[in-house]
């Protein structure tokens, strides 16, 4: 009997000890889910943003000249350095002008002779008119001498015109730059014969500013018209450009031409932007990426690219609510601005979203949020500088638009 009691006490003690040991473990398991998965979260960036439409085009020179000689002859000298910048009026080629000088001398002498004949004819006419009162000379003689004066005067005029042309030809032997710009190579070198109006000596392109032609599809054009009433929906928008080897759109220009009709075959409208080129960094023919300012939002929403998830064909983010649970939120994406992405719909100012650890949580699950910044100070400073450039160039674009409107 006593043995049975002792065994019962031992068993009861073991059961109690087991219960005590298992209770903390069960409590730990029950509390674990409530702690949530640790994730990095950040508040969305709310600031003024400008949407952009991107196009491609090529740079063209506003003026381009294929230089031809105005007189025929042999090239005496090429006076320019190939590829250099030349100013209007600079001498580029010298054509042997000896024949033109000789022609000027010949016509000068011929003009002197014609003037002498005119003087003599006038004197003869004066004498005949003096004898008319005494009837010593007939009317026929008077008419003949008056005609001689007119003929001599015509010869003087004809010779003067020929002399002027000869002097022009002598001047044309000095081939000058008709415009300022960058000159190409010399196609004709010293000692070669050139024909007036045919031989292309070289080419010059004006490069102080350059044009960029691009085509806007009709849907985009109509959107501009809807957002900005009036025919100047594109004229007063700034244009940013980057070249093939550049990442940033650091070249700023403005629209200075919009075609008067849409191309029915392509459904596009030809537009031209102009860019200053004081440093001569741009060349005609370069391929260019262009951004035309579109819709402006005073309270735009931007988030980090890594915070965006893909669900089939949808883009989404995970929003952390007040209960520290994540909620699925579909979003519409806008332009990329640096390392951030504009959100057109789905988020609002003040929202907090998961930026790192997107794959570790599911909608409705609790999380342990670790607050971080959506963008570093350098990125935000860059955004501010970019927006300042946009605002500044908007003013310049409006000035250009006013100039265009004044020519219509």
UniProtKB/TrEMBL annotation:
Residues 97-131 form a coiled coil. PROSITE patterns: PROKAR_LIPOPROTEIN. InterPro entries: MdtA-like_b-barrel (IPR058626), MdtA-like_BSH (IPR058625), MdtA-like_C (IPR058627), MdtA-like_HH (IPR058624), RND_pump_MFP (IPR006143). It is found in: Cell inner membrane. Residues 64-200 form the Multidrug resistance protein MdtA-like barrel-sandwich hybrid domain. GO terms for biological process: response to antibiotic. GO terms for cellular component: plasma membrane. The keyword Cell inner membrane does not apply. The keyword Acyltransferase does not apply. Residues 105-169 form the Multidrug resistance protein MdtA-like alpha-helical hairpin domain. GO terms for molecular function: transmembrane transporter activity. It is a lipid-anchor. Residues 301-360 form the Multidrug resistance protein MdtA-like C-terminal permuted SH3 domain. Gene3D superfamilies: 2.40.30.170, 2.40.420.20, 2.40.50.100, Helix hairpin bin. Keywords: Coiled coil. Residues 236-292 form the Multidrug resistance protein MdtA-like beta-barrel domain. Its main location: membrane. Belongs to the membrane fusion protein (MFP) (TC 8.A.1) family. This is Efflux RND transporter periplasmic adaptor subunit. The lineage of its organism: Bacteria, Pseudomonadati, Pseudomonadota, Gammaproteobacteria, Alteromonadales.
């Amino acid at each position: 009997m006593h043995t049975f009691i002792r065994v019962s006490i031992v068993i009861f003690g073991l059961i109690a000890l087991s219960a005590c040991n298992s209770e903390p473990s069960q409590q730990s398991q029950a509390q674990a889910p409530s702690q949530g998965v640790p994730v990095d979260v950040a508040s969305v960036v709310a600031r003024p943003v400008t949407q952009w439409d991107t196009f491609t085009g090529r740079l063209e020179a506003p003026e381009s000249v294929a230089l031809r000689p105005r007189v025929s002859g042999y090239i005496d000298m090429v006076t320019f350095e190939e590829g250099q910048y030349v100013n209007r009026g600079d001498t580029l080629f010298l054509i042997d002008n000896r024949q033109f000088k000789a022609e000027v001398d010949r016509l000068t002498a011929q003009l002197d002779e014609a003037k002498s004949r005119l003087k003599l004819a006038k004197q003869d006419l004066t004498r005949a008119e003096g004898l008319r009162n005494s009837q010593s000379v007939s009317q026929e003689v008077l008419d003949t001498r008056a005609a001689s004066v007119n003929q001599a005067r015509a010869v003087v005029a004809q010779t003067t015109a020929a002399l002027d042309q000869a002097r022009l030809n002598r001047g044309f032997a000095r081939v000058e730059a008709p415009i300022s710009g960058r000159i190409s190579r010399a196609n004709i070198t010293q000692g070669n014969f050139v024909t007036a109006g045919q031989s292309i000596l070289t080419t010059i392109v004006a490069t102080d500013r350059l044009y960029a032609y691009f085509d806007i599809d009709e849907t985009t054009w109509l959107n501009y018209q809807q957002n900005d009433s009036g025919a100047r929906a594109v004229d007063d928008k700034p244009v940013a450009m980057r070249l093939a080897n550049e990442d940033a759109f650091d070249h700023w220009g403005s629209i200075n031409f919009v075609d008067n009709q849409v191309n029915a075959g392509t459904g596009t409208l030809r537009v031209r932007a102009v860019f200053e080129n004081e440093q001569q960094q741009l060349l005609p023919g370069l391929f260019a990426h262009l951004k035309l300012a579109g819709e402006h939002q005073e309270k735009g929403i931007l988030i980090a690219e890594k915070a965006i998830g893909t669900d089939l064909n949808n883009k989404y983010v995970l929003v952390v609510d007040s209960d520290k649970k994540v909620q699925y939120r579909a979003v519409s994406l806008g332009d990329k601005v640096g390392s951030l992405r504009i959100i057109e719909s789905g988020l609002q100012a003040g929202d907090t979203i998961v930026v790192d650890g997107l794959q570790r949580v599911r909608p409705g699950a609790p999380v342990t949020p670790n607050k971080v910044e959506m963008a570093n100070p350098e990125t935000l400073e860059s955004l501010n500088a970019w927006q300042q450039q946009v605002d500044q160039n908007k003013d310049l674009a409006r000035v250009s638009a006013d100039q265009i409107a004044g020519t219509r």
